[in-house]
Design a protein that fits this description.
Layout: E1 8-21, H1 25-28, E2 32-47, E3 52-65, E4 72-87, H2 94-97, H3 99-162, H4 168-203, H5 210-214, H6 234-244, H7 246-268, E5 272-288, H8 305-313, E6 317-327, H9 333-400, H10 406-441, H11 444-447, H12 452-457
Antiparallel strand pairs: 1-2, 2-3, 3-4, 4-5, 5-6
Helix pairs in contact: 3-4, 3-7, 3-10, 6-9, 7-9, 9-10
């Protein structure tokens, strides 16, 4: 157990009246002995983190009686007692006695880290939602261009049919292709509206504002405009992650708490050996009883309470005591059980800490591999898109020269739309892989210019990097 290190002062004031029937008249000279006692007692207690404690008591009393053999009435007494104690084995040391305070401070740090982890999760979620919005926006643009091209192709086919240059079947195929493109565009637009709703829900407190509900969300960033090469090595990324990941920081703090409990449990197995010292100063005073009928007595004591207090503090009648108190539990099974439990919890925390480091290493490597694979997919998708664009340009030129057909041109345009959609998908996956790598190495807040102090206050004071 740990005492409170806040000092306490207690006071006790009372007035007591007692009456006692005496069977022996010669004791006090009266058959009913009456005493009136007034007391004023003050005590001060203070414990220290080293395992020591100090107790100071100051007791004062005044008593009057009706006894004819009591020399003083009223009589006064004042006592000062100082008791100092220091634990030498069990309960000794700052680590044992300050463990609850240190654990509380560690728990406060864990709370701050948990808040940071929540901010990281929120930023990660919103970043992924944003790139889904960008992907939906680009997909809608691809669909819009595809519908515009299909419309132009249909108009051209109708004019050629009027001139009997192509059969009616080509016009019907162009109309069917336009209907398909319009359906794809409708799906892309509704998906864009849904992604806009997700973004509004993520960055606003409420969606009850009708103006906000109708306002479009236009992304300002483009997907993977330039794929930057990864300069940091996997080893450097892992080292950064081991320093920055919040779950690892929480595990380290928990391991620190377990270590404190472990040391305390070991300390509790020791015998209790206390070194203590006591000082007592007393003072007495009184006024001669007017009813006194005993033999004459000469007293050098003061006659008032002030004199008794002075004698209590001026070392007139002191008492000193210094000693050791030893208590040895023969079995101490409760302390042993606590010690086994804390050892087991500490080992479990160590194992979890090492498993967490291994998991973080794997996450960083997987995120790095995913980013490299995403960059390769983007490069391949861009080449496919460029090839489809060149093919469409050739088909359009051949059609103008009369060597190609509308269906060949429509097929080439369809292939271009598919290639552009595949490129949007690959670029979105690449951007999300970048976000995952930032999260895995624990740098996502720094990369986006987010300060935890700004997050706590709700006021953004740090501009985000470009």
């Amino acid at each position: 157990s740990v005492s409170s290190y806040d000092p306490t002062i207690s006071a006790n004031l009372y007035n007591d009246h007692t009456s006692e029937q005496l069977t022996n008249f010669q004791v006090e000279g009266v058959s009913i002995y009456k005493a009136n006692t007034s007391a004023a007692n003050v005590s001060y207690n203070q414990a220290f983190p080293t395992g020591s404690s100090v107790q100071i008591q100051w007791n004062n009393s005044r008593q009057t009686t009706n006894g004819i053999y009591d020399y003083f009435s009223p009589s006064y007494s004042s006592t000062v007692q100082v008791v100092a104690q220091q634990q030498l084995l069990a309960g000794f040391g700052l680590g044992t006695n300050l463990r609850f305070l240190r654990i509380a401070k560690t728990n406060q740090k864990e709370t701050d880290i948990a808040f940071k982890a929540q901010v990281i999760a929120t930023v990660d979620q919103i970043a992924n939602i944003y790139w889904d919005l960008v992907a939906a926006y680009d997909t809608e643009q691809v669909g819009d261009r595809s519908v515009a091209f299909a419309t132009d192709t249909l108009n051209t086919a109708r004019q050629q049919f009027k001139l009997q240059a192509i059969p009616e079947m080509d016009v019907l195929k162009a109309e069917g292709d336009l209907a398909t493109r319009e359906q794809d565009l409708t799906v892309a637009r509704t998906n864009l509206e849904l992604q806009e709703l997700y973004m509004k829900n993520a960055i606003t407190r409420t969606l009850d504002d009708p103006i906000l509900d109708e306002m479009p969300v236009v992304p300002t960033d483009r997907i993977a405009t330039q794929i930057a090469p990864i300069s940091d090595s996997v080893k450097d990324m892992i080292n950064t992650a081991l320093k920055s990941r919040t779950e690892l920081q929480v595990s380290q703090l928990d391991l620190k708490n377990r270590e404190l409990s472990r040391k305390t449990a070991r300390n509790a197995l020791l015998p209790e050996l206390d070194l203590y010292g006591v000082y007592v100063g007393t003072g007495a005073a009184g006024t001669q009883n007017t009813k006194y009928q005993g033999s004459p007595i000469t007293s050098g004591l003061p006659t008032d309470l002030g004199g008794a207090i002075q004698d209590a503090f001026n070392n007139t009648a002191p008492e000193y005591r210094v000693g050791l108190s030893l208590q040895i539990p023969l079995r101490n099974r409760i302390a042993k059980a606590d010690q086994y439990r804390t050892e087991l919890e500490y080992r479990q925390s160590q194992v979890y800490f090492e498993e967490l480091k291994k998991r973080i290493r794997i996450e960083v490597r997987n995120a790095r591999y995913a980013l490299e694979q995403g960059a390769a997919r983007v490069d391949s998708a861009r080449k496919a898109r460029d090839l489809a664009a060149k093919t469409l340009d050739i088909m359009q030129k051949e059609q103008k020269l009369g060597a190609g057909s509308n269906q060949q041109t429509l097929s080439a345009e369809h292939d271009l739309a598919v290639a552009e959609s595949a490129l949007v998908t690959a670029e979105t996956a690449y951007e999300k892989a970048r976000i995952e790598l930032k999260r895995a190495i624990g740098s996502i807040l720094d990369d986006y210019g987010i300060s935890i102090s700004d997050a706590k206050s709700g006021n953004v004071g740090t501009p985000a990097p470009n």
